Amino acid sequence: MAGLCESLPNFLCKFPAFSDVSIRAVRKSVDDGFKALVRSYVNAIDAMVQPLQWFLNYLERLFVSSPWPIILLIMLAIVYFGSRNIKITIGTAISMLAIGLLGLWNDTMVTLAMVTVCTFIAILVGIPIGILMARSDRVQGVINPILDVMQTMPSFVYLIPVVMIFGIGKVPGLIAVVIYAVPPMIRLTNLGIRLVDKEVLEAADAFGSSGWQKLKNVQMPLALPTIMAGINQTIMMSLAMVVVASMVGVGGLGKNVLQAINNQFFTVGFLNGFALVAIAIIFDRTSQAYGKRLQKHSEVIHG
Amino acid sequence: MVSHAIEVRNLYKIFGPRGGDYVDAVKNGLGKAELNQKYGHVLGLRDINISMPAGGIMVVMGLSGSGKSTLIRHINRLIDPTAGEVLYDGVDVCKMSENDLREFRRHKTAMVFQKFALLPHRTVLENTVYGLEIQGVGQAEREKRATQWIARVGLSGFENHYPNQLSGGMQQRVGLARALTNDADILLMDEAYSALDPLIRVDMQTVLLDLQKELKKTVVFITHDLDEALRLGDKIAILRDGMVVQQGTGQEIVLNPADEYITAFVKEVNRGRVVNVETIMAPLSGNPEGMPIVKGTVLEVAARAMTSANQTLAHVVDENNRPVGAISLSAIISSMVTPTSHEAKAA
């Protein structure tokens, strides 16, 4: 096949790309334009993300500086009352104690604070967008491709604009994590609402429900199992992204992993990795058990 | 509370994106098949004119695809008509604003669905209060009223069960209680009993008839079962391919079926339970003979009374015990069996 090229005109053999000079010019003007834009709004952007910063710092300080037994007890209480499952609670206690013994307690707390805030914001942003999508096919048509891009774009790539806009630090990390973790929340909220039984919706209409009443009484409760699955996915994706976000200055377990990669610290890397896995499993089991408990009514089928 | 009649006038429904464009063509005789083939639109209802009696049970009967469920959805406008009007108390439901329509649905109508359409995450009590909750009635008041209706449909003690824990018949009782708790003038029942097995269905029919005796609501009942239609209906309309083929009382339809289609239907009917004695009685000539039978008695009951009394002749009396006609056992029996003309027509 290589020989074929000799008998063909050049532009069929080598892809006729734009010249390096022109590509560079375009690239430079886009980059400069973007930078200038960011520079001119830097104050507004800072003011906008300030509350996030406060919230994040407050929660982190609360988690890190409270005596560990109190945090552990609160965690166990949440896990127990969420799941009502003694096995999950004991598992949580053991893994948290192991994390503490291995000297990873503070880093774990930092990560926990981060994931909590990220999940909270992802839910806050994701559910309303999901509802909007479910209500209009046109909105769905616009948002779906955006979500596709968000989910397939390598996460390192959108760290770049995030860093350009917000700089290095916790908040840019948080924004990157939320961008990465919010798509399943939006998609599953949309899907859950769209899957609600048409007959039940018709009944709600027949009794004269307003749009809000229908959403509150019928659509959201019936979509809840799917929405819970979305929350679960969002938590898992936040935990995964926290490691990547350490590249832009997020502390905690992710930072340790990053250092371990750079220095080939095999043990440190795996210990921190396992700590992340432990948190992931605790979150996952608890939220799933909680979701299942909410659906108690559908379990007892008449025989 | 006085219920009003519902007047359906010149109602057309053509399903499809440009249904309105074809109304005139359909009025001028464009058929269902042709509309579908040439223009890709489906003719749902065609020139429906029915006046549904105030405080009575109107049964709309038809097989699947006849448009009966479409018709009932026009009364509370879950489906918008392509042309025509639905009048209730002088107001055209089809022309109501969104707000008026919502108020109309909240206060004037209540609906029972074939597949129950209960909220699975709510208990029986929470399902039953739904209509009042939407109206904004306080919790104590709505639960009091709901509990009362739950008891009336025979579900006391099940208030805190979830629909999934109940059988089909019980679930439909919840559906009925939910509709009745609304205390609306119009009760719409869309094949409400079709998903129930026969014994429970008869049971639920009895519940409805008993309740209707005191409530006197304007009930619109959809069914594909002629026996159910005859048992419940003060008036019956039979739909076929989106058109009314015959409407009238049960007796009128059984005795004078309008065409072969209906003849085929009524062939299987137990006439003894539908036809009344005064329908077939002969004019009184001379003195009343035999035993008295009260007007309104169905033939089966009359025949049973006469055979057990060992009489072949009887006279029909009105409410004041005045004789109004004469009847013989042989006349009763010949009316109870399907006339040969019908057999031939149906075959």
Automatic annotation (TrEMBL), chain A:
It is found in: Cell membrane. Keywords: Cell membrane, Membrane, Transmembrane, Transmembrane helix, Transport. Its main location: membrane. InterPro entries: MetI-like, MetI-like_sf. The chain crosses the membrane at residues 62-81, 88-105, 111-134, 155-182, 265-283. It is a multi-pass membrane protein. Residues 108-287 form the ABC transmembrane type-1 domain. Belongs to the binding-protein-dependent transport system permease family. PANTHER family: GLYCINE BETAINE/PROLINE BETAINE TRANSPORT SYSTEM PERMEASE PROTEIN PROW (PTHR47737), GLYCINE BETAINE_PROLINE BETAINE TRANSPORT SYSTEM PERMEASE PROTEIN PROW (PTHR47737:SF1). This is Proline/glycine betaine ABC transporter permease. It comes from Shinella curvata.
TrEMBL record, chain B:
Gene3D superfamilies: P-loop containing nucleotide triphosphate hydrolases. It catalyses: a quaternary ammonium(out) + ATP + H2O = a quaternary ammonium(in) + ADP + phosphate + H(+). CDD domains: ABC_Pro_Gly_Betaine. The keyword Acyltransferase does not apply. It comes from Shinella curvata. Belongs to the ABC transporter superfamily. Its EC number is 7.6.2.9. It is found in: Cell inner membrane. Residues 6-266 form the ABC transporter domain. This is Quaternary amine transport ATP-binding protein. The complex is probably composed of two ATP-binding proteins, two transmembrane proteins and a solute-binding protein. Keywords: ATP-binding, Cell inner membrane, Cell membrane, Membrane, Nucleotide-binding, Transport. GO terms for molecular function: ATP binding. The keyword Membrane applies. InterPro entries: AAA+_ATPase, ABC_osmolyte_uptake_ATP-bind, ABC_transporter-like_ATP-bd, ABC_transporter-like_CS, CBS_dom_sf, Gly-betaine_transp_ATP-bd, P-loop_NTPase. It is a peripheral membrane protein. It holds the Pfam family ABC_tran.
